[in-house]
Every structure is written in C-alpha cells, then in structure tokens.
Write a structure and sequence with these properties.
Blueprint lengths: L6 H16 L6 H15 L4 H4 L18
Length: 69
C-alpha cells in the first residue's frame, strides 16, 4: 500500500497518527506496573493457566481406557 502512495501522502498519514497518539493519556510505568501486579495477584485464584483445570471439568481428559481381553 505504501508503495502506491507519494511521500506527501505517507507524511500526512504519519502526522494524523501522531495527532491521535498525542491525545492519549500517559502514566509512568512505575505506577501502571504496580497496578498490573496487584490486579494479577487479586485475580490469580480464577486464572485457569495458573491453577489448572479441575479433573472433572477437563474436556480433554480420557474418559476410559482401552481394555483387551
């Protein structure tokens, strides 16, 4: 797409993007990282990736084995 556009068109697009980004509210990483850690710790009890899937609710658990008599 950029190959079909002139340099002026590309610069206009970049300027529009920068004008959008300058309106974003910014916060220091030290504050947001602390909030993120607190949120993860508060919600870790419900996180399936951390606690695992209960055996009775695991859809991929083998229901029964093969028995050869």
């Amino acid at each position: 797409m950029a190959r079909d556009m002139s340099d002026i068109d590309i610069l206009k697009m970049e300027l529009q993007q920068l004008q959008k980004e300058v309106k974003n509210e910014r916060e220091p990483v030290s504050k947001t990282a602390k909030e993120l850690v607190e949120w993860v710790e508060a919600n870790s009890a419900e996180d399936i990736l951390l606690k695992g899937v209960p055996e009775d609710k695991n859809p991929f658990k083998e229901k029964g084995g093969c028995i050869i008599t």
